[in-house]
Design a protein that fits this description.
The chain has about 425 residues and is mainly α. It folds into three domains: about 80 residues, Fumarase C, Chain B, domain 1; about 250 residues, Fumarase/aspartase (Central domain) (Fumarase C, Chain A, domain 2); about 60 residues, Fumarase/aspartase (C-terminal domain) (Ribonucleotide Reductase Protein R1, domain 1). It has 18 helices and six strands. A two-stranded antiparallel ribbon has the order 1-2. It has a two-stranded parallel ribbon with strand order 3-4. A two-stranded antiparallel sheet has the order 5-6. Helix 2 packs across helix 8, helix 7 packs parallel to helix 18 and helix 9 packs parallel to helix 11. It is elongated, with a radius of gyration of 30 Å.
Length: about 425
């Protein structure tokens, strides 16, 4: 595990400098393993380690001629190491370096993503506890349903992000595999013991079997995990956008001093951060599809996956890192308006208690069909007349046959709907 204070930023992981540095790590670990098993002279390893250097500019210059990045890298290393360079990359193929190095960088990226998950989950949890009992209307189909609390909504988000974190831990585990098995995975020129020792040195697990490449189902799982996480972030962002609509205005993204919302309309305060999340989630999902397309390669390997991964690996990890941090800031500084939640809760003048009224009639022996009919009639009257639902119900003789006025007033008590808030919080946060 890389120390969080010395860990590189996500963009640095995908720099050319870090790419070649991880390549060099693999090559030196292979030299150490080969020296251990007597495949190369033991005294050359220290000389290789002390002289092995590279220049990104020089590698790019050599690659202009070779049209092969690994050969250009090895040529540049040889310029520094001298005659001992003949022991570097011995018995290996390019993908031994590329795929094992990719595992190292995906591990680095995953650890940053896990930190981002933790930060977002903390921000959601803090808001959830602050608004555990902040009552608001729950909506289905965009229409008022029954009361919830804003804390319950946040608890649902936290619970989903905890699943995303577990998926990410599993994806990290499944991507942390290395391979040094030669041109077609047969270990013909490099024994399996070398692979085992190299992977141990690098903190990886050796694959059970490979071709010339580590099989891309591992990558497909990794990038689909990022896509699911992005989908959750978008889900939260879409909800914030809906709740910030002028007609609703129950929450709002923080609007900084000096911030502008529109070039034409000075009054605008737009949920631009959440809108960004929706857009970026589309990119990460499309990258996951590209990772699925990379699973099927010709025979023991073709190169069709390589160009794709050069794009989706940095893009998806950088994007999800950005999204996690952006949403964490939004959640930390989210402006919540309980007074508007209360106003919206009261807009239907008590219709939100219709189910509880129906259930009480059923409890008194009324069939479900009759109870539904008995409640729907005054409910529709309330919709059209804009009168309080309870007042209309209290004039319904058929309902009064089964329920007293005091019982009806008791049914319209909002606390009935909130009695298990603490139970929900215990299930979500006490795990």
């Amino acid at each position: 595990m890389i120390d969080r204070y010395t860990r590189p930023k996500m963009g640095q992981i995908w720099s050319e400098e870090n790419k070649y540095q991880t390549w060099l790590q693999v090559e030196i670990a292979a030299c150490e393993a080969m020296a251990h098993y007597g495949m190369i002279p033991a005294n050359v390893v220290d000389r290789i380690k002390s002289h092995a250097k590279f220049s990104v500019a020089r590698i790019e210059e050599i690659e202009q001629e070779t049209r092969h990045d690994v050969i250009a890298f090895l040529t540049n290393i040889a310029e520094h190491v001298g005659p001992d360079s003949r022991y570097i990359h011995m018995g290996m193929t390019s993908s031994d370096v590329l795929d094992t190095s990719m595992a190292l960088r995906l591990k680095q990226a995953s650890e940053i993503i896990l930190d981002g998950c933790d930060a977002l989950m903390k921000a959601i949890k803090d808001q959830a506890y602050e608004h555990r009992n902040t009552v608001m209307i729950g909506r289905s189909h965009g229409i008022h349903a029954e009361p919830i609390t804003f804390g319950i909504k946040l608890a649902v988000w936290y619970d989903e992000m905890s699943r995303n974190r577990r998926r990410m831990e599993h994806a990290l585990q499944n991507i942390s595999f290395g391979m040094l098995s030669g041109a077609v995975g047969t270990y013909a020129n490099i024994p399996p013991d070398i692979e085992t020792m190299v992977c141990e040195k690098l903190g990886l697990t050796p694959v059970n079997a490979s071709t010339q490449v580590i099989q891309r189902d591992r990558y497909a799982e990794f990038f689909s995990t990022l896509a699911i996480m992005a989908a959750t972030i978008e889900k939260i962002a879409v909800e914030i956008r809906h709740l910030q609509r002028t007609e609703v205005l129950e929450v709002e993204e923080h609007f900084a001093k000096g911030q502008k919302g529109s070039s034409a309309m000075p009054h605008k305060r737009n949920p631009v951060g959440s809108e960004n999340m929706s857009g970026l989630a589309r990119l990460i999902r499309s990258n996951a599809m590209a990772a699925f397309e990379n699973v099927a390669l010709w025979h023991e390997r073709d190169i069709s996956h390589s160009s794709v991964e050069r794009v989706i690996a940095p893009d998806s990890t950088i994007l999800i890192d950005y999204m996690l941090h952006r949403l964490t800031r939004i959640m930390t500084h989210l402006m919540v308006y309980p007074e508007n939640m209360q106003k919206n809760l009261e807009k239907t003048r008590g219709l939100i208690f219709s189910q509880q009224l129906m259930l009480n009639l059923i409890a008194q022996g009324v069939t479900r069909e009759d109870a539904y009919r008995m409640v729907q009639k005054p409910a529709m009257d309330a919709w059209h007349s804009k009168k309080a639902f309870m007042d209309i119900v209290l004039l319904e003789n058929e309902i009064l046959t089964y329920l007293s006025e005091n019982k009806i007033r008791e049914i319209f008590d909002i606390s009935y709907h909130l009695k298990y808030v603490d139970v929900i919080f215990k299930k979500v946060f006490d795990k």
